[in-house]
Protein: N-(5'-phosphoribosyl)anthranilate isomerase
Organism: Liquorilactobacillus mali KCTC 3596 = DSM 20444
Amino acid sequence: MTKVKICGIKDLKTVTILNQTLPDYVGFVFAKSSRQVSIEQAKKIRKQLLPCIKTIGVFTEFKKQTIEILVEQKIIQGVQFHTKISTVEVDNLKNKDLLIFQIANKTTKPAKEVDYWMFDSKVPGSGQLVDWNQIDAKGHPFIIAGGLNANNVGAAISKLHPGIVDVSSGVEKNGQKDANEIAKFIRSVKNADEKNK
């Protein structure tokens, strides 16, 4: 079964639909972005989310202190890096029982030890489609992000068989997460999994 990550959650309004549709993961963006949240905002949202939904902190640089606060306060269960990280950093994060996602592109070769390699467009969260023909995970578990929506996620699953599909702008209307789009996206993933059994 393909897992789903809804990224860029920044307000409590979205929690109701997330608790109804049950994505596997929700992403909190701590990097500079229109979807950036503070530790306090993330904490409030985490408290309202059902415990079965894992939360992932998204970073464009390794912020040890922020990550430690987020872990101590049980705000995140995983981290996603759009940057290089050292083997020592990976080991430290693993010791905290965190899931680790890392971007894979021309400038960042992901560590073998991370849980998932992530293939995304050049500008994450922009809605630009990642080039599916350029994806080579070399047998490593991987995530597809970049330009996914309810209309194309089924094709991505059929062609690439990712472990996780990650969506942000593809479930938004006017820059806000939309309950109908989230429900449609998750339904499309389930339908694709049924077809590919």
Notes: The chain has six helices and ten strands. Strands lie at 3-7, 25-29, 54-59, 78-81, 99-103, 116-119, 142-144, 164-167, 172-173, 176-177. The helical segments are 15-21, 39-48, 64-72, 87-95, 153-160, 179-195.
